[in-house]
Amino acid sequence: QLEKVGFIGLGNMGYHMASNLIRAGHIVTVHDINYDAMKKFSEKGISSKKTPFEVAEASDVVITMLPSASNVLDVYTGQNGLLHGGSCLRPWLFIDSSTIDPQTSRKLSMSVSSCVLKEQKGYANTPVMLDAPVSGGVPGAEARTLTFMVGGLEEAYIAAKPLFLSMGKNTIYCGGTGNGAAAKICNNLAMAISMIGVSEALALGQSLGIAASTLTAIFNSSSARCWSSDSYNPVPGVMEGVPSSRNYDGGFSSKLMAKDLALAMASAKEIGMNCPLGSAAHEIYTELCKQGYESKDFSCVFRHLYAGKNE
Ligand code: NAD
């Protein structure tokens, strides 16, 4: 039922995800507004289409991996978009793996389910949408070790699980539509705050005369231990193989972190919740981007904000 897979958004993440689907034996059709991104596939004989609608016409399931909610809306509801057929669609499943706000995911899911299927397929006569953002970054996309956080109808999640496992190693069902998107922005909210907290404490410790490696060893065997201290330490030289040890290159950019924090803050605002630390973290990452560090890994908050050293 999910033999023919459409994939839209062939950037840093999508290129590897689509390639892994092809490696796993799926019949993949691709589209991107960037001709060069599509060419990498068409040169290998992979079918590429000029519009999202043409991808939909060729697919049982369509996966999108796009920068932001406006791009996702464009691809779904724009001119020649996935839902261009209006009421009569060929794919029975739509999966959006972009990091966007849960409100947009819920709205789009309603638009999808207000359509009917061209041919009776799957278990329902209306198409279904899952929000399935990922964690694991570009290395995880390449190595097929992504984690998918999935919101939407559970039956659709179960049907799509083999597809997720062709692109990653973990899938977590989060509940109804929009819950995958909510899980992703909450995870990144906590990650940003913990990275800033660890950076601030390590910078203060250094200024008070304690070596960052000593303080890290204390954190890691004490109550300050967390992923930002024991797996992704922000101080150059404390850990090998992390962005802080290669001039903060690669990894997860400050620009994407600022975007995800903006999504979390917009969602909080919409439900009237006050998030003082999230709001401070959003300001900090926005400032880092303004200072020109938008493509540096988000752990650069240590050096550029707290340690105050020049690049
Ligand atoms: P990217 O900018 O590298 O790729 C996005 C691709 O979408 C580009 O090739 C672009 O040309 C294409 N695109 C944009 N608008 C389009 C449209 N209207 N129609 C067709 N194609 C269009 O982004 P990325 O790093 O691959 O990230 C994609 C999503 O995954 C984002 O939402 C991001 O937040 C999320 N994400 C990224 C990472 C990471 O480490 N890069 C990790 C987890 C999640």
UniProtKB/TrEMBL annotation:
**Main location class:** mitochondrion
This protein's UniProt keywords: Branched-chain amino acid catabolism, Mitochondrion, NAD, Oxidoreductase, Transit peptide
* Classification via InterPro entries: 3-OH-isobutyrate_DH-rel_CS (IPR002204), 6-PGluconate_DH-like_C_sf (IPR008927), 6PGD_dom2 (IPR013328), 6PGDH_NADP-bd (IPR006115), HIBADH (IPR011548), HIBADH-like_NADP-bd (IPR029154), HIBADH-related (IPR015815), NAD(P)-bd_dom_sf (IPR036291)
A GO molecular-function descriptor: NAD binding
GO terms for biological process?
A: L-valine catabolic process
Q: What superkingdom does the record give? A: Eukaryota
**Places the protein is found:** Mitochondrion
Give one Pfam family, short name only: NAD_binding_2
In this protein, which residues make up the domain named 6-phosphogluconate dehydrogenase NADP-binding?
4-175
Q: Which residues are listed as membrane-spanning?
A: none
Q: What pathway or pathways are given for this protein in its record?
A: Amino-acid degradation; L-valine degradation
Q: Which GO terms describe its cellular component?
A: mitochondrion
EC annotation from Swiss-Prot or TrEMBL? 1.1.1.31
Catalytic activity, reaction form: 3-hydroxy-2-methylpropanoate + NAD(+) = 2-methyl-3-oxopropanoate + NADH + H(+)
Enumerate the active-site residues: K184
Q: Where does the 3-hydroxyisobutyrate dehydrogenase-like NAD-binding domain start and stop, copy by copy?
A: 178-304
The UniProt family comment states: Belongs to the HIBADH-related family. 3-hydroxyisobutyrate dehydrogenase subfamily.
Question: Which NCBIfam families does the entry mention?
Answer: HIBADH
- The protein, known as: 3-hydroxyisobutyrate dehydrogenase
